[in-house]
Specification:
This protein is an alpha/beta fold. It is built from 11 helices and 13 strands. The strands form 4 sheets. The chain has a 5-stranded mixed β-sheet, with helices on both faces. A 4-stranded mixed β-sheet has the order 8-13-12-11, with helices on both faces. A two-stranded antiparallel sheet has the order 2-3. The two termini are 24 Å apart. The structure holds oxa(dethia)-CoA. Oxa(dethia)-CoA (UT7) binds next to helix 2, helix 6 and helix 8.
Length: 332
């Protein structure tokens, strides 16, 4: 049995935070942010909006495109580092909101690689014959763990969610391969020190700002480019393909310089890149499924296209997926 994507969806907060807005909050400039990161604006959740708010809306849109009902789902996976609560899983909350009573639901913690990790788990469950229909989501409200007085990090991140329906198929096409990797030796270059068992909530942990993202930007940058190249090469080699044969490359939307450096090392021309980070910033696990849904709904993906997804995130985690697109434009 093979697995293929039969629907995509995304959902973003309506509130926009521009670089001009950030200039009023920290010592930065639009010029610096655009030249160092490529980000022009990002979407930010307002009071009453949570990770599950955007995740469930993205899921509804993906379900509607695929034409299946929530009761048909066997599996719901959400990649997120900003769940609604440490427990229960946000996936269980989504299961309830959608009425997907027959699904097993759980979260995956793989930072920015969370969506491809989820896709890989769904693909494996389908290939083994264990399940037939899965909902895979990447969703984040990073704005709640960003220190809005730290110019090194607050300019980078944004909120949102993207989703895909993955179904069993007897055709050979669809998800051609997934590769997932972990390298825990650098876990402390990008992490959230507070909120777990090491630094639970206390006056000290709050005063020391342990609940905010802690990142060694320069180091993360170097590892990201190498790891994304490695993950992409694994996908190309497994499918006996050259980079020149790809129809589209959808990298994790981390930073335009990381994306360009990775594409250059792989020999992928700029016109094959799908980039939307100027509008949304880095939305971690949500970035790839939001980009996939936008490319899909903009009619940029044609039946038979070969699409490479490539991610890198805290952990470190990195991952790739090679897709042979199966949706006709009239199904979108
Ligand atoms: O999904 C993976 C998540 N993480 C990432 O993708 C992050 C990867 N890293 C990056 O994207 C980059 O390292 C950053 C965009 C975070 C920073 O860019 P950089 O080119 O590595 O800058 P830098 O940290 O080397 O800083 C250069 C200078 C410093 O000033 P001095 O020490 O040279 O005087 C910083 O203090 O830029 C300063 N700086 C800023 N200036 C204006 C840092 N942030 C800002 C800012 N506005 N927002």
């Amino acid at each position: 049995m093979n697995a293929r994507i039969t629907g995509t969806g995304s959902s973003l907060p309506s509130k926009i935070l521009t670089n001009a807005d950030l200039e009023l909050m920290v010592d930065t400039s639009d010029d610096w942010i655009v030249s160092r990161t490529g980000v022009k604006e990002r979407r930010i959740a307002v009071a009453g909006e949570y990770t599950s708010t955007f995740a469930s809306e993205a899921a509804r849109r993906a379900l509607s495109m695929s034409g299946i009902s929530p009761e048909e789902l066997d599996l719901i996976i959400i990649g997120t580092v900003t769940p609604d609560f440490p427990f229960p899983s946000t996936a269980c909350i989504i299961q309830n909101e959608l009425g997907a009573h027959n699904a097993v639901a759980f979260d995956v913690s793989a930072a920015c690689s969370g969506f491809i990790y989820g896709l890989s788990i769904a693909e494996s469950f389908i290939r083994s014959g264990k399940i037939k229909k899965a909902l895979v989501i990447g969703a984040e409200v990073l704005s709640r763990i960003v220190d809005w007085s730290d110019r090194n990090t607050c300019i980078l991140f944004g909120d949102g969610a993207g989703a895909a329906i993955v179904e069993a198929s007897e055709e050979l096409n669809g998800i051609l391969s997934t590769h997932i990797f972990s390298n825990g030796s650098h876990w402390n270059l990008l992490y959230q020190p507070g909120s777990g068992s090491r630094n639970p909530a206390s006056d000290r942990s709050i005063d020391s700002k342990l609940f905010f993202i802690n990142m060694e930007g320069n180091e993360v940058f170097k590892h990201a480019v190498k790891a994304m190249e490695e993950a992409a090469m694994a996908a190309l080699e497994a499918n006996s393909m050259k980079a020149s044969e790809l129809s589209m490359f959808i990298p994790h939307q981390a930073n335009i310089r990381i994306v360009n450096a990775t594409a250059k090392r792989l020999g992928i021309p700029m016109e094959k890149l799908f980039i939307n980070l100027h509008n949304y910033g880095n939305t971690s696990a949500a970035s790839i499924p939001i980009a996939l849904d936008e490319a899909n709904r903009q009619g940029r993906l044609k039946k038979g296209d070969t699409i490479l997804l490539d991610a890198f995130g805290g952990g470190f985690t990195y991952a790739s997926a090679m897709l042979r697109w199966q949706l006709d434009s009239n199904q979108v």
